[in-house]
Amino acid sequence: xxxxxxxxxxxxxxxxxxxxxxxxxxxxxxxxxxxxxxxxxxxxxxxxxxxxxxxxxxxxxxxxxxxxxxxxxxxxxxxxxxxxxxxxxxxxxxxxxxxxxxxxxxxxxxxxxxxxxxxxxxxxxxxxxxxxxxxxxxxxxxxxxxxxxxxxxxxxxxxxxxxxxxxxxxxxxxxxxxxxxxxxxxxxxxxxxxxxxxxxxxxxxxxxxxxxxxxxxxxxxxxxxxxxxxxxxxxxxxxxxxxxxxxxxxxxxxxxxxxxxxxxxxxxxxxxxxxxxxxxxxxxxxxxxxxxxxxxx
Length: 297
What we know:
By secondary structure, the protein is of the alpha+beta class. The protein is built from seven helices and nine strands.
C-alpha cells in the first residue's frame, strides 16, 4: 500500500449527499465540525437577536430598557402655564412681601393722581413729534394705570398704602413683542424725557424729571425709572416722586408704581419686584406661592 503524501493545504471533507448509512466504515469524530456547527448556530442566534433589537416594531422598542432610559444629563424645562385671571390673582404680592407698615387696599384700580394730568409742551424738544409723544405716553400711562397698554391675557392688580404713599402692583400677560417694545420705550425715557414741562388745568405748569433706577436682578428683562413731578395742589407747591418698575417673565409682566408726595421708599419697590417675580414663576410652573417670602430670597 502506498502511503499518501501529506498535503500542506487542509482538505475539505466531501459533502454528504444524505444521511450516513450503518455500513459506513467507522472513523473518529472530527472535532472541527461540531465546533463549526456550534459557531454557526451561535451566529444565527446572534443575527436573530440583532434583527429583533433593530426591528422597527413599536412594541419591541417600548419594552426595551435601553430605549426607555433617559439620556444622561438631559433636563426638561417645564412649559409655562397660561396666565388666567385666577393665576394672576395668585401671583399678586401681599403685605407679607413688603416691609414696614403697608396696608393692602382694594381701590388701587381707581387711583388717579391729578398731578400727572397735563399736556406736554412740544416746543421744548429738539425732535418734537417723537420726544413729546413718548413723554405724553408716560404721563397718561401713569395716570390711567395702564403703562404697558391693554393685556392680551389674564391680569390682576392690587394696591398698598402707607401714610401718603401708595404702591400700585399689577400682573398681566402681554404679547412678547409688545412687551419688548414697551421695555425699549421705558429705557429711552431718561434720555428722551430727561426734563420737560406739561401744562395742566388753568394753565398750571408741571415740571417733570425722569431718571433711570436700578432694580433687583430678577425676571427675564427689566427697566426701572424714578419720575418726579413738581406742581401745585390747593395753591401750595408739591412734589410727587414715583418709582416705576416693569419686569418681564416670559410673556407676562409685573408693573410697580410706588411713591407719593412725601417721597418714595425704594426698598419697598425692590421687595415688590423680587418677591413678585418669585410668586409669578411659581404660578407659571403650576405651584402655589408661599404665603410668606423666604428669608433666603
